[in-house]
Structure formats: C-alpha cells, structure tokens
Amino acid sequence: DARVTQTPRDKVTEMGQEVTMRCQPILGHNTVFWYRQTMKQGLELLAYFRNRAPLDDSGMPKDRFSAEMPDATLATLKIQPSEPRDSAVYFCASARTGTYEQYFGPGTRLTVT
Amino acid sequence: GQQVMQIPQYQHVQEGEDFTTYCNSSTTLSNIQWYKQRPGGHPVFLIQLVKSGEVKKQKRLTFQFGEAKKNSSLHITATQTTDVGTYFCAVYFGNEKLTFGTGTRLTIIP
User: Fold this and answer.
1) Among B29, B89, B95, B96, the residue to mutate for chain A (most A Cβ within 10 A)
2) Picking from B1-5, B51-55, B68-72, B103-107, which range would have the lowest pLDDT averaged per residue?
3) Which of A30, A69, B24, B58 is the most exposed place for a label (fewest CB within 10 A)?
4) Which of A31, A103, A104 sits opposite B96 (nearest CB)?
C-alpha cells in the first residue's frame, strides 16, 4: 500500500533554529505539494513541484522558508530562522500528473518556542 | 483569491442521526473534491465530482454537485462513531493548486 512518508513526525525547537522537514512522495507521483495547517488559517498551500521543478511557491514566506526536491524521492521544506508563528502541522502530498487526487503524508507537527 | 465557503463549521450529532455539510462558491466550478481528516490525522481523498447535478454514493455517504456547479454537499446517513473527523471540500481553480474549504468538524454523541 503506497504511502507518502514524512519525517520527523514531531519537532519542537527554539525560536531562531533551523528546521528541516522531509517528504518521500509515492513512487511514480511527479507532483509534490507542501501544505501548512493551523486552526486559524486552515489548510494553506505553501509550494508545489512537478517533475522536481518548483511551479509555485507564492504561499510561502520567502525570507525564511525554502522548498526543494533534490531528487524524485525526496522533497524538503526548510525554515530558517524559525519563529513561534511557524508552529503548525506541515503536510506533504503527492499526485500523479493527469489525476487530481492528492495523497497526503502523516504530517510534521512543528512547535517553535 | 478564489475561495469556497463551507458550512457549518461544527456539527454535533447523536449517533445514528444524519449529517450534511455544504460547500458554496460564487463562481462556477469545474470540479470539487471531498476529503476527510480524522482527529490527529491527515486529509484523505474521498471523491471528486465534475459533472453538473452529479450524485455519487459511497456506502452511507452521498455526494452531490449542484446543477449550476456552484455548490456541493456531503451527506452521511445514520452516522457512526467512525465518521468523526473534519470534512473538507476542495477545488482546483484552473491550475494544480487545490483550494480547501474551511472544513466541517463532525463530532458524534454516542
């Protein structure tokens, strides 16, 4: 049963520290999305890639967030420096081009103190 | 930006009662998806609707797309404790960016 995996599942860090979240999309899925979920804002799209190329990162705070896909099996989301307002659950999702169903990973719960 | 309004925000029902959540848009939609997120879990795709007036069923769940393609509903018949969670509608507005509704959180009173 193919699944999107994310690490770490939980991360507690202090303000100012760098945070790196990783995602392994489902094999064969060439579109990868990063979402952030908070009680206040709901589910927000931060960035997405197709065939490893960034297509849109307009939802991401540019000064501190960066997203990359070093290879087809790994997507990363970095926050440097982290701030308390970044506390949220970050989801990665993947999809196969031509289909609109997105498969979400279990998420990384980030707490910045 | 474009968005979809989802109501109600919360719904508490007795086990066995029915439940409905609604999604509305001011513009005509080409598609609408529904996701379920269990407490502490991640969104899970349920279904996609694309045709005007489309009705699809999955066991006790009935999904409808309005004739004008501006609204959609998810109806659960005879709720069970396993139905607990937040139900989201989501729409692709002309590109691959999925816009999620605010969700309806369903709690079941046993």
Assistant:
1) B96
2) B1-5
3) B58
4) A31
Q: How do A108-112 and A10-13 pair as beta strands?
A: parallel
Beta bridge partners of A42: A38
The answer to whether the beta carbons of residues B110 and B84 sit under 8 Å apart is: no
**Contact between chains at B88 and A43 (C-beta distance less than 8 A):** yes
Hey, is B3 helix, strand or coil? Answer: coil
- Which residues 6+ apart lie within 8 Å of B4 measured at CB? B23, B24, B25, B29, B32, B89, B90, B91, B99, B100, B101
Interface membership of B31 toward A (CB under 8 Å): yes
Partners of A55 on chain B (C-beta within 8 Å) are 96
In B50-93, the DSSP E strands lie at 55-58, 61-65, 71-76, 85-92
Cα of A29 vs its chain's centroid, Å:
15
User: Which position has the higher pLDDT, A1 or B97?
Assistant: B97
